[in-house]
């Protein structure tokens, strides 16, 4: 297991539509294990495979709950259905350090996919977990959360985004520690 470097905005792999996983083998499980390590090292609540340079339909989440342990699991070949409601909330992205904005997402949805052993599952998710799932499912399609913002907001972010493209990371950014701040609302994924 190992921490892999997170790709930063401007890296073309983040815009790639990732390919479905067809082999649920040891190399997939090694990727998932590395993604859990990487998400923890960067203090993230979610991470998609293309954020570590692998354009496969895989993501992991580690989302705090109001009570009990975190929701921490991998999703392979995700399908999101039956989106319901709308909710605005803060999001950040490990691939876009220094940018936090409100994004409107469905409040709940039905998540279908496979675990890293190829076992199919489906479940309803809501609230902050549903937000993280939608953010990660966008990643595997090459969509970034800033794509979901208004044109005006995106124009206001232009300078910061251009800095990321040039490899200029925000002050205090540590590659192995991610942006900053506690997990939870506004955390990055
Ligand atoms: Ni992200």
What would you say this structure looks like, in words?
The chain has 189 residues and is α+β, with helices and mostly antiparallel strands. It has a single domain, classed as Peptide Deformylase, CATH 3.90.45. It is 24% helix and 26% strand. The protein is built from three helices and seven strands; from the N terminus they run αβββββββαα. The protein has helices at residues 26-41, 127-140, 151-165; strands at residues 46-48, 58-63, 71-84, 87-92, 100-105, 108-114, 120-126. The strands form two sheets. It has a five-stranded antiparallel sheet with strand order 1-2-3-6-7, with helices on both faces. The protein has a two-stranded antiparallel sheet with strand order 4-5. A hairpin with a 5-residue loop joins strand 6 (108-114) and strand 7. It is globular, with a radius of gyration of 15 Å. The model is unreliable at 178-182 (pLDDT under 50). Bound molecules: nickel (II) ion.
Give the N-to-C terminal Cα separation: 20 Å
Q: What is the element string, with H for helices and E for strands? A: HEEEEEEEHH
**Fraction of residues in helix:** 10-25%
Shape: globular
How many distinct beta strands?
A: 7
Q: Can you identify the CATH class?
A: Alpha Beta
Described by strand count, sense and barrel closure, the largest sheet is: 5 strands, antiparallel
């Amino acid at each position: 297991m190992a921490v892999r470097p997170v790709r930063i905005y401007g890296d073309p792999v983040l815009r790639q539509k990732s390919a479905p996983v067809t082999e649920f083998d040891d190399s997939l499980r090694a990727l998932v294990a590395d993604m859990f390590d990487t998400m923890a090292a960067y203090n993230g609540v979610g991470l998609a495979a293309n954020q570590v340079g692998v354009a496969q339909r895989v993501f992991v989440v580690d989302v705090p709950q109001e009570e009990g342990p975190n929701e921490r699991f991998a999703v392979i070949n995700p399908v999101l259905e039956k989106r319901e409601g709308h909710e605005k909330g803060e999001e950040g992205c490990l691939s876009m350090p220094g940018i936090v904005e409100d994004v409107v997402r469905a409040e709940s949805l039905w998540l279908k996919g496979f675990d890293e052993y190829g076992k199919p599952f489906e479940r309803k998710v809501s609230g902050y977990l549903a937000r993280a799932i939608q953010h990660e499912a966008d990643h595997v399609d090459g969509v970034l959360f800033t794509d979901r913002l208004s044109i005006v907001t995106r124009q206001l972010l232009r300078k910061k985004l251009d800095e990321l493209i040039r490899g200029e990371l925000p002050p205090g950014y540590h590659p192995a520690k991610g942006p900053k701040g506690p997990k939870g609302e506004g955390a990055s994924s």
